[in-house]
Amino acid sequence: MQERLIHSDPLTGVVTWLKTFEDGKFVFEERQDVDLVRKYAQEMRAASSGAAIRPNTQNHRRHVAEIPPVVANQLMRDGIMNGHGGIRDQKRFATWLNGPGREWKTTEGTV
Question: Would you say 65 and 103 are in contact if contact means Cβ atoms under 8 Å apart?
């Protein structure tokens, strides 16, 4: 197997590699160090825990998660998000965010 760097985005930290195999097959692989995004989400979650969140009928949107690009790309491939960062399947997104995606949440509680 051979690896070749295809693209490196300094803004997002996403690096794209091309892996070619002896049988002629190839795979594009995206890598990103998500530790800073994870830490940011944890800090936001810690800052919001214990705070009284009063319902506001005028606040129809709330920042509930900070999702790294490589994770969002996988959610797009799974049909949960669309290509514009929007949610395609609300129920599956909530299930993911309350389960395996919990580490990216910026607030406590369930979605």
Answer: no
Which residue shows structure tokens 């309350």? Answer: 98
The whole-number pLDDT of residue 84 equals: 85
Q: Is 70 exceeded by the pLDDT of residue 82?
A: yes
d(CA 24, CA 37): 36
Residue appearing with tokens 């900070």: 66
C-alpha 48/C-alpha 25 separation (Å) is 47
12-35 as b/e: b if 16+ CB within 10 A: ebbbeeeeeeeeeeeeeebebebe
Give the per-residue pLDDT at 70. 92
Q: How many whole angstroms separate alpha carbon 75 and alpha carbon 27?
A: 18
Q: Which residues pair with 18 in a beta bridge?
A: 4, 28
Cα gap 95→99, rounded to integer Å? 6
pLDDT at 29 over 90: yes
- Segment 60-67 shows an average pLDDT of 81
